[in-house]
Specification:
The structure is a single chain. The chain is an alpha+beta fold and about 160 residues long. It contains 4 helices and 9 strands. It has a domain of about 90 residues: Immunoglobulin-like (Sandwich). Helices cover about 20% and strands about 35% of the residues. The strands form 3 sheets. A 4-stranded antiparallel beta sheet has the order 3-2-5-6, with no helix packed on it. The radius of gyration is 29 Å and the shape is elongated.
Amino acid sequence: MYNPRLYFTLLLLLFCIIGCENTDSPVDDISSTMGTLQVEVLNQQHVSFQVALYQDEEIVAQTDSKRSFEITNIEPGSYILRITAAGFKEIERSVEILAGQSISIDNVTLQPTPQTEANLGKGLTIGSPAPDFELPDGNGNLHSLSEYLDTGKHVVLVFYRFGG
């Protein structure tokens, strides 16, 4: 039995399937014209560091990390990669990003500054005096250790992780 409505629906479905197989997708075009940068940092101190990718002295991308990171969808071109961490020398590398390729920089090592290097591994021993320092309270008011010690009070410091 001939049903024109059924044949018309099947023909329309066939045209839809053929039309969906178009490989000129804008998503494919974008991913093939952009590049990716992957960096692995040897970070034995487990310090958090900041990463910035510059082009013509303007930040193109930035992130924080403790070991490795990946920046995707970077336009092809020449860039400067800067890795900074408190107490460590700034690392700067020239990077050439190529279309559709992933650039990998491995084994980047954070180098302590001479001042940090002198203080690494040195801590307080039982009974030794603590150095004076200032820290903010929950309201942002600064308090120094010396202001409490001058009153003859005992001081107990409690550290806790905040915000994640």
